[in-house]
Amino acid sequence: MENSSRRVVAFAGTNLIRSHKRRTVSDTTAFPCTTAEIAVAKAASVDDPSDPGAVVDGGRAGQRPQAASLGGALTACESPVRSLSAGSTTDCEPGGPVLTLRGGYTVSMCYEAQRGEVGDAKDWGLDSSQSGLLYFFERNNAEVLIKVLDGCAVNGHRRVFVAPVTDLAFNLYVESHNGRRWTHTNRLGQTADMATDVSAFDCDNDDAITVAVDAASAEEGDAVEFTVTLSAPAAGDTVLGWSTSAATATAGADFTAVTAERLSISAGETTGTLRDDR
To answer: What Cα–Cα distance (Å) separates residue 276 from each residue in 76, 221, 244?
Structure first.
């Protein structure tokens, strides 16, 4: 048994704007478990050994290790045998975005625990377009707060703030809609650093929204519809001008030329339909 205590992880440092990384404080022996609490935790482990939310190693559990390896069921005050050695990084890759924040910035994150359990972070469901809260195993045990803020008017960049409270190995990615990636990682057994990057994404390059138009066809005399897609949702309505021109057809004989039409895509949306019935 490594220890018989509850663990505390808290933030340290206040002036995040001026610092890229700040240390986080953790105490793995903050509050000793009582004999009764240990007994209850062991009983719960025996009663439901398949429970994926069982508390192991300070409040985290993925796949429960075999009890025989330590001579009994694991409890909140015991640590499992580790197959990923302390100080190791993880080569896990997130399965996909777990959050999409304002401007089309996506957040994805994977973790690896002591016995090699690998998983994706989950969205806690914070009602915000600029920040999110992530958890690994149980929703009432949040692991990471992340924010992507608009600093374009200040220094021409989007800002990223990350505050993890975990000592699991992880890879966290923030990506812009045009594929640029910002990364934050942690080694197993190390209390993760907070990170602040006030120049994470260049507004001129990453805020440019591109337009794509799907190919479409129709029988002669029928209307034709094109799906127009924006690379990211815009803060306000997007108004696009469009017109038609002749290729193999002849304007006036085969179709009626369009010279100054408008397609409006509402704020926050990324698609619209262009219809030509002339």
So the answer is: 65, 11, 9
Q: Are 90 and 110 in contact (CB under 8 A)?
A: yes
Dist CA 24 CA 243 (whole Å): 57
Q: Which of 82, 77, 43 is nearest to 62 (CA)?
A: 82
Could you list the pLDDT tens digit for every one of the 278 residues in the chain?
445 555 554 444 433 333 344 555 666 666 777 777 777 777 765 555 444 444 444 444 444 333 333 333 434 444 444 456 677 889 999 999 999 998 889 999 999 998 888 999 999 999 999 999 999 999 999 999 999 999 988 999 999 999 999 999 999 999 998 889 999 999 999 999 999 999 999 887 765 677 788 887 777 777 788 888 887 777 677 888 877 777 777 777 767 777 778 888 888 788 888 887 76
Query: Which amino acid makes up residue 11?
Result: F
Residue 15: which residues within 8 A CB-CB, separation 6 or more? none
C-beta separation of 107 from 147 below 8 A? no
> Nearest 5°: CA angle at 201, between 195 and 205?
175
**Environment class of 105 (CB within 10 Å of its CB; exposed 0-12, middle 13-18, buried 19+):** buried
Residue type at position 4: S
